[in-house]
Structure formats: C-alpha cells, structure tokens
Specification:
40% strand, Outer membrane protein assembly factor BamE, lipoprotein component of the BamABCDE complex, Beta-lactamase Inhibitory Protein, Chain:B, domain 1, BamE_dom, 100 residues
Length: 100
C-alpha cells in the first residue's frame, strides 16, 4: 500500500521538474508609455523597477527586463524588453518581444 503514495509523489516531482522560469515579471502594459528621446532612466525605474540585467552598448547603458517560462510539455512564455539610453540617461531606443 505504501508504494502508491510514493509513486504518486515521484510522478508529481517529475511533472514539476519539467518546468523552468528565468528572470522576473515586469508590467508589459507599461511598454507603450516609453517614448524615445523623452523617457528618462528614473521614469523607467519607476515603471518597471530595477532591471534584471544591465550592460553597455557603444558606451551607453542598456537595461534589460525579461521573464521566460518553459515547460517540458511544450508550452512556453517569453517577454523581453531591452532599453538603450543615451549619455544623458534618456531612452535612445528599445526593443520588446513577447510570445503572446
């Protein structure tokens, strides 16, 4: 009798083990409010929070926000926002990609 609960628990762990999440959720509805040449780093931080990753492109800062979910069962969800700032801390460009 003890084998059935053990098998069920093992099956549940295998099912849960087939999923992975990377990054942190961010408010994708705020992307529409980004304006190249106007939106500042402070405004980006206020809308999206701290970036998941930071970097540099041609000497100018870049902030990345990303949330990625994969499942062994074939479903996935991806949201990725990369914001490039000019030397004054104003949005120079951005790219937003989603699987929705």
């Amino acid at each position: 009798m003890r084998r059935i609960p053990t098998l069920l628990a093992a099956g549940g762990l295998l099912a849960l083990g087939g999923c992975a999440t990377v990054g942190q959720p961010f408010p994708s509805d705020e992307v529409e409010g980004l304006t190249v040449g106007e939106t500042t780093r402070a405004e980006v931080r206020e809308r999206f929070g701290e970036p998941w990753r930071t970097g540099s492109e041609n000497g100018d800062p870049t902030w990345s926000y990303g949330h990625y979910e994969w499942s062994a069962f074939g479903t996935s969800d991806m949201k990725d926002l990369v914001i490039r700032f000019d030397g004054d801390g104003v949005v120079r460009s951005f790219t937003y990609n989603t699987s929705d």
